[in-house]
Amino acid sequence: MAIPSLDELTLLHNIVCHAVADPKRIQIMYALHEQPRNVTALSEALSSPQPTISRHLTILRERSLVVAERSGTSVTYRLADPRIIDVLDTMRQMLRESFARRTSAIE
After folding, report:
1. Are 20 and 88 in contact, with CB atoms under 8 Å apart?
2. In 10 A of CB 65, how many CB atoms?
3. Is the alpha carbon torsion for 77, 82, 60, 22 positive or negative?
C-alpha cells in the first residue's frame, strides 16, 4: 500500500480524528451503534445534559459520522457508517495490549 498523501491525511485528521478527540463523542457513537436515538435518549443513556449532547452531535454531524433523521418534531440520530466502531474497537484493543506490555515489562 502506498504512503497516503499529506492532503488525504490532513483531511483524515481534520474530519475523523477531531471528531473522536473527545471521549463524550466516542460514547455517543457507541450508544448510537447500539441503536438510533434522539437527544433525550442519548442524554439519559450517557447521564449528560442535553445541551452537551447536542453540541457533540453537531460536531459528529458536521463531520458526517452521524446522520439525523427527522420524523415530525422528533430527530433521531444514527451512525453514518458503523465501521467507525470497528476502528474504535481496534484502537481500544491496541491500548489494552500496550498497557499489558508495559505492565509485563515492569514486572
Report:
1. yes
2. 21
3. positive
Q: How far apart are CA 46 and CA 42, in angstroms?
A: 6
> Does residue 4 fall inside a structural domain?
no
pLDDT tens digits, 56-73:
999 999 999 999 999 889
Residues in the chain: 107
Tell me which residue range forms the domain holding 65: 10-106
- 75-84 pLDDT, tens digit each: 999 999 999 9
Residue 92's CATH number: 1.10.10.10
3-state secondary structure of 76: strand
Q: Is residue 1 part of a domain?
A: no
The residue assigned the cell 436515538 is: 37
